[in-house]
Design a protein that fits this description.
With about 140 residues, this protein is an alpha+beta fold. Helix content is about 30%, strand content about 40%.
């Protein structure tokens, strides 16, 4: 069974999306460089952020299943191209805090690189990433 989401336009450049199972609401608007006011995440911002959020989640779950704990934060840069207008490149810096062996670090990186959003994006956007482990 799939996950149901519903949405509707608020203005010609803004959309409201509802997640009925949780009651969560997300609003998007077109960016300034594409006719919007940039007051919310754009749809492509959400796509880009989904990559890093997914990888962060999958790394945390992999660590938990393997019996160790980590805390992951990220910085993400989305670079667009104009013709056709689409995401050209995503640059992600993951900072992973926790005590981890070399094998556990590889497990985290492998998990991050195989998250469902990345697999869905495939080769449609260049993904440049760095995993920085900080021992605590």
């Amino acid at each position: 069974m799939g996950v149901l989401m519903k949405g509707h336009s608020l203005t010609p450049t803004s959309v409201e999306i509802h997640h009925p199972d949780s009651g969560a609401i997300i609003r998007t608007t077109a960016p300034k460089d594409n006719g919007g006011d940039g007051s919310q995440f754009s749809p492509t911002d959400l796509c880009a952020a989904s990559l890093a959020a997914c990888a962060t989640t999958i790394m945390g779950m992999a660590a938990q299943r393997a019996g160790f704990s980590i805390e992951v934060s990220f910085t993400l840069e989305k670079i667009m191209q104009s013709n056709p207008r689409q995401i050209r490149q995503l640059k992600v810096e993951y900072t992973i805090r926790g005590a981890a062996t070399a094998e556990q670090k590889r497990l985290c990186e492998d998990a991050g690189r195989t998250c469902p959003v990345r697999l869905t994006l495939g080769n449609n956007a260049e993904i440049v990433e760095n995993y920085d482990f900080i021992e605590c």
